[in-house]
Structure formats: C-alpha cells, structure tokens
Amino acid sequence: MTALRHRSATAIALVAAGILIAGGQNAHAEPPSHDPAPHQQWSFDGPLGNFDLASVQRGYTVYAEICSTCHGMQHVHFGDLAGTGLTAAQAQAIAASHKIPDGIGSDGKPALRAATADDAFPTPPVAQGLIPGAVIPPDQSRLAEVYPGGPDRIYALLTGYGPPPPGVTPPPGLFYNRFAQARAIAMPPPLSDDAVEYPDGTKATTEQEARDVTTFLAWVAQPHLAERHRTGVRVMIYLVFLGVLLFVLKRRLWSNVY
Questions:
Q1: Does 187 show up as a binding residue in the annotation?
Q2: What is the pLDDT of residues 9-68, one digit of tens each?
Q3: What Cα–Cα distance (Å) separates residue 201 from each residue in 59, 65, 81, 198?
Q4: Is Protein transport set as a keyword in this record (predicted)?
Q5: pLDDT per residue as tens digits for the range 101-118
Q6: Is 77 annotated as a binding residue?
Q7: Domains, the chain
Q8: Cα 115 to Cα 51: distance, rounded to the nearest angstrom
C-alpha cells in the first residue's frame, strides 16, 4: 500500500512537472502582446529634470481641442493652469469659455454657468458613460503615472497607428496599433498633421502634437515635480556641507589624541 502511494505521488509530481514545463514553453513561444515603447528624451527626466512649459502649454491646446472630446480630467482645475506659465487672468479666461452644470433652472431643466478657476475640467458625456455602447475612455488626470510604460508608452501609442501587417486583421471596431495591448485599440487615431494651430507658431506635426500632449499629461500628473527636484538638490547640498563640517570638527576634536 505504501509503495502504491509512493508510485501515485511520483506520477502526480511528474504530471505536474510536465504541465509546468509545457506551460513555460508555451509562454516562451507566445509573442509579446505589444511592441516595447522606445525611450524618448524628456526634459522632465532625471533628478534635475523640469518641465518645458512652452511644450506644456502647447500640450494643453492639443488636449483642449482634441482629447477633451472624449477624455476627462476630474482632478484638474482651471486654476491649475497658472502653473503652466499662464497668468491667473489667462487661466480665468480659459475657465470662462467653458460651461458646466449648475443645478436645475427655474424652468425645470439643467442649468449651465461659466466655469471659474476653482472648477474642475468638465467631463465629456462619453467619459461619464452616457453614450450607450461606447467604450468609456480613461480619465487623464494621472494617466502618465498609472499607464504602464508612462510617457514613453503614451507617445508611442499616439504615433503607433498604421496599417496592420499582412495576415493581421484587428477585431471589428478596433484599430491596429503596435503599441496597444494586443495591438488593437478602440480609440481612432486622434492626431494628424495640422490638427491644431499652436499660438506660438510651432509646426503642428503628428509627432509634435504627441510630444506636447504627453508632456502636458506628465505635468498634470506631477505638477510639483520641478519644485521637488529643487528641494532634493538643496537637501543634498545641505547634507554634503554638514558631512564636511562634521568631518572637520572630528579632526579638530581628536587631533590631540595621537
């Protein structure tokens, strides 16, 4: 009976090992679900990085004219735009150009009012789930922080549309994008050459629009990044100075011991 149990246990172990090996071989044989995003050079990279505010402002233009049709930013307020280099008056003027819900009017219908600097960016109907059958796009308030691959992947995704290779057909309603999960995405190509007109006269190519709006999304996710970097540099300088001071003090205190 003991020998039978031993043989049974051995057989089970061998079957389990075979399953693990086969699973490992299958996993190794499967191609990745999307192409890796190439690393881009960003001004905000590294411990001394900071945001190119001109690019951030252009990125807001792309968001406002293209992305905001579908994507919301419920954690960003119009007053926050002052951090992009705009004046408080300019941020207020942008806010006033938007209408937001303001309860129910005297006629019993939903009322609207001009937004103020304290109001959050309005969320479009599709992002609120009010369009039947439509895919709900993600909120972009923290997208650059939570999206796998971060800014590099966002930029790659925005510029990665194209015809599928021979023999590949995206599922109905989806678009081929080699950087998207499973290389298919519900979002149509959002950017194109001259899709916006930049106030500073920069040529609005697809790549420029993608770079600017990605920079804007990175700024939205970490608006105080440059300030944190400056604080970190000050702390490091202080610690180095303190270390040198302690070293000199130690040498002086113990100089008569030897």
A1: yes
A2: 444 343 333 333 334 444 444 556 899 999 999 999 987 788 999 999 999 999 999 999
A3: 14, 16, 20, 5
A4: no
A5: 888 877 878 888 999 999
A6: no
A7: 53-162+190-229 (1.10.760.10)
A8: 27
